[in-house]
Amino acid sequence: MISRRTGLLVLPGLALLLAGFLVPSAAMLLAPPGVSPADILARLGQMLTDPYDLTIIWRTVRLGLIVTLICLVLGFPIAYLLARSTSRWSGVLLALAIFPLLLSNVVRTFGWLVVLGSNGAIGQLLLALGLVDQAPQLLYTELAIVLGLTQLFLPLAIISCYSAVAQVDPGLDDAARGLGASRTRTFWGIVAPLSGPGIVVAATLVFAGSATAYTTPYLLGGSSQRMLSTQLFSYSSVSIDWAAASATALIMTVLVFVVSGLSSLAARRGRTS
Amino acid sequence: MNTRRPVAATLAVAGYVIMIVPILFVVATSFTGGSTLRFPPEGLSLRWFDAAVHHTPFITAMVSSLQLAALATVLALLLGIPATLAIHRGRLPGKGLVEGLFLSPLIVPELVVGLALFQQLMIGLRLDNFTVLLIGHTVLMLPYAVRVTGASLALADPFVEEAARGLGASPLRTFFTVTLPLLRPGIFSAALLSFVTSFNNVPLSLLLQSRDFRTLPVTMLDYVQQSYDPMVAATSTIILAGTVLVAVVAERTVGFARIFGGINR
């Protein structure tokens, strides 16, 4: 199949990418209808100094970091136990961890409305136990967003960590244990450093996903806990403020690019050292 | 799961609870006899399933979403497989850059792409929203087609193809009788992943709605925001059942875990 003409097969796909993705994205970010690049820069400067806009940017970054941390702390042990387990249940548990990725985000997020809502499971349980007089406000809080995002992105963290841990030869664990290292020391001395690049990938995927997710902050954060994504939507469909929409889109895109760039840098340094 | 590692086991259980329990609550509330979304459910009935399957906006949107997902998947494969072939087997200048371009839709936030297509194609060029949705979803699925089939292609021995050519088969015949069968598991994985991703998509589709063509997840989102009844729970349970079916088919054919991130067991 190696022929000069085979290379031409790339053209139709490339054409679609240009017309249906790259050109519209560049046009939207730099020159939306009736807006000059200077207007966007001015709006960007305003956002980066305005206290309300800064709260939203900071909330997006902060919740993204918190969710990333939680997903690693919960996801790595799951990946580790599954990769090292010889039980016949581990296949089922792995499938159970991956399955949510196939399920609609709306369906998964909707579950938290049932759990956290004022007539929801937690509130009713606390009332029934007589611990509170009225159901606590759990919905439309940052906690709700963090729970919802953790649910969405934990499977991604598990998969990335799993591939990483599975590549570490279990013989190394046995060798360290045989030489007298404790279970904890074996973990931190062998498994954690060797699966480092996989953990970096997991962190990047989770952060990029949670900093740009829409469904979760929309359903669980409501209008009181705005994030960049919900803000972007209201600029582009409610108030139709193209300059503000482009500025917000720029902030989101740059945020994701910077984090991806940092992580590939970290992965490269990890390989060479 | 593992009693010798109590900390890890506790964290793992917490992780599973967060991933799975909310879904179980959705299923439980969908069978309620009451008229509000409360837990524990009041009585047992199928009334909300009945309401869901008779709610025209949901049914229409479900059909639309299925059509869009099927078309976008086919289109992404039709454009993505030849491109993968060109990248891996052809003489292509700037191979790395081209492959990077095909994967780039994964990095840009979907909401941003959605805004770009809404503003530039729907408003700017006055394309109808179905066309724009199809373009957007196909772009979004291209990385799957390129990456997943690329992985199968990298594993396939190019000498088998060369042998076929040496024995006198035309390039086209070599592709259909040698290369394509080697790629089949990869293509199937990519198709499944694309279909499900497209069907479930919210951020890209969010702004690309019209009265004539609406997708199901966005329609459900709008409904939840307005009324707080268990009909969405029933619809969710139906979607869950469909997704389980897809997962079982995936497990029986390629192996469920292999579809994602090349996990081999």
User: Hey, roughly how much beta strand do the residues of chain B contain?
Assistant: under 5%
Secondary structure tally: strands of chain B: 0
Q: Can you summarize the main beta sheet of chain B?
A: none
**Number of helices, where a helix is a run of at least 4 consecutive DSSP H or I residues of chain B:** 11
Helices and strands of chain A, in order, run as HHHHHHHHHHHHH
Write a structural description:
- The complex is a heterodimer of chains A (273) and B (265).
- Chain A is mostly helical and 273 residues long.
- Chain A has helices spanning 11-30, 37-47, 51-84, 89-98, 105-116, 121-128, 142-167, 170-178, 183-194, 196-212, 215-221, 228-238, 242-272.
- In chain A, α5 (105-116) packs across α7 and α5 packs parallel to α11 (215-221).
- The longest helix of chain A is centred in the first third of the chain and has 34 residues, at 51-84.
- The two termini of chain A are 40 Å apart.
- In chain B, 73% of the residues lie in helices and 0% in strands.
- Chain B contains 11 helices and no strands.
- In chain B, α1 crosses α10 (231-253).
- At the A-B interface, α1, α3, α4, α5 and α7 of A face α1, α3, α4, α5 and α6 of B.
Give a quick rundown of the structure:
By secondary structure, chain A is mostly helical.
Supply database-style keywords.
heterodimer; A: 273 residues; mainly alpha; MetI-like fold; 13 helices; B: 265 residues; 11 helices; 73% helix; globular
Ordered list of secondary-structure elements with their pairings:
The complex is a heterodimer of chains A (273) and B (265).
Chain A: H1 11-30, H2 37-47, H3 51-84, H4 89-98, H5 105-116, H6 121-128, H7 142-167, H8 170-178, H9 183-194, H10 196-212, H11 215-221, H12 228-238, H13 242-272
Helix pairs in contact in A: 2-13, 3-4, 3-7, 3-10, 5-7, 5-11, 7-10, 7-11, 8-9, 10-13, 12-13
Chain B: H1 6-30, H2 47-53, H3 56-89, H4 95-103, H5 110-124, H6 129-155, H7 158-166, H8 171-200, H9 216-226, H10 231-253, H11 256-259
Helix pairs in contact in B: 1-10, 2-10, 3-6, 3-8, 3-9, 5-6, 6-8, 7-8, 8-10
